[in-house]
Amino acid sequence: MSNNDHMFEKGGEDATPTWSALLPAMLHALEMSKNQKAKDEIKQELKRMARLADITVKRAKIKDLYIQSVPTGVPVWTQETKDEE
Fold this sequence. Notes:
Elements: H1 5-9, H2 19-32, H3 36-69, H4 76-84
């Protein structure tokens, strides 16, 4: 269990900022900071974000191919749920 899991169990709200919200501050710090360690950490984080974006796009493409391969265009797990109702 991660440190934030308790928030969801008790109905708390997730206040995690979006990457889009963080990016301007990260780019500003990257440009203006004299702290090389901070710059290196930001560069590493941007690389990680890019990898995650690539993975997300790949998963979305796989999901689209799967949905297109089902004759009805509706995922199998959705069809099963409708049949049970």
